[in-house]
Amino acid sequence: MKILVVGGAGYIGSHMVKCLLRTGHDVVIFDNLSKGYRDAIIGGVFVEGDLADGEQLDRLFKSHDVDVVMHFASFIEVAESVKEPARYYQNNFVNTQNLLDVMVEHGIGSFIFSSTAAVFGEPQYTPIDEAHPKMPINPYGKSKLMVEQLLADYDTAYGIKSVSLRYFNAAGADPDGELGERHNPETHLIPLVLQVASGRRDAISIFGNDYDTPDGTCVRDYIHVQDLCDAHLLAVNHLLKTRTSNNFNLGNGQGFSVQQVIDCVANVTGRKLTVRIEERREGDPAVLVADAKQARSMLGWNPSMPDLEIIIETAWRWEQSFF
Ligand code: UDP
């Protein structure tokens, strides 16, 4: 199959490209390199461009006979989305609509969307299944939920079939050490703690230790990036076979606290880590854990690296090799 990976130079997109190439697909990558890196593109055909540019998308679909579009290109920082909602609605929603409109014109009817646990907002119960109410509490989560809603309407009206995959906490790196997580600035817990371990950063801040959790720090469900990629492959197969649109929550169903992550990094790296307790970060729910039974039963998804230690080991290899 020929698969267009939008955002294929970014963290999850670049791992997806590698996974698609390994499984024998033709890959076209579309990325404006605003967050991604040229050297993260390890194969396929690269087209540098922007989703805001409908004419360029039109040319892209004219010159490539694309079967499926996977869309990873979005802004992902919750705090930034609160300060700059215009950029988030523009990039995450308007530009996605633009992409879908050009797909409709070209009769491309299969779409895999990178959604997020942030569409749920403050959890009303955990683990969170697909039926959980969707009440996002920041523009990031709202912009993603708006796309999910748009996709339902585009299915009804134009027949575009889609799968929205709601990632919990994507983490880890390519086990071969070729690719990894690179955000600038980095705000995610695991890469930041690893930067402390490698000496690039003095200390790790814990944002709040007075939550209603066993050790007072926030609990998250970390899922290996490769397991996310596997879910995308299964989602494509399911979509092509059933021609029905779906949403799936993707996580291991096991929560780890910020303190447990820091302890695990100390174990894996053998380094002493300086920790500072700071104020809570705005918009952080105490616990976010996925109920991914639906992905397991309907897609046959079975994460192969659920162990936090292995997730961290792969990310540590990347941190050490790259910097
Ligand atoms: N966190 C932290 N210190 C940091 C970065 C993150 O304590 O320097 C916490 C954050 O408050 C959250 C958890 O780690 O409870 C995971 O945060 P991350 O930004 O990695 O992912 P998110 O859950 O926001 O998607």
Commentary on this structure:
- Helices cover 41% and strands 18% of the residues.
- It is an alpha/beta fold and 323 residues long.
- It has 2 domains: 2-171 and 223-250, NAD(P)-binding Rossmann-like Domain (Rossmann fold, 3-Layer(aba) Sandwich), CATH 3.40.50.720; 189-221 and 253-320, UDP-galactose 4-epimerase, domain 1.
- The mean pLDDT is 97.
- It binds uridine-5'-diphosphate.
- Uridine-5'-diphosphate (UDP) binds at residues 78, 169, 187-189, 192, 204-207, 218, 220, 258, 281, 284.
Topology:
Blueprint: E1 2-6, H1 11-22, E2 26-31, E3 45-48, H2 54-63, E4 68-71, H3 78-83, H4 85-105, E5 110-116, H5 139-158, E6 161-167, E7 169-171, H6 189-198, E8 204-207, E9 219-220, E10 222-224, H7 225-242, E11 246-250, E12 256-257, H8 258-269, E13 275-278, E14 287-288, H9 293-299, H10 308-322
Parallel strand pairs: 1-2, 1-4, 2-3, 4-5, 5-6, 6-11, 7-10, 8-13, 9-14
Antiparallel strand pairs: 9-12
Helix pairs in contact: 1-7, 2-4, 4-5, 6-8, 6-10, 8-10
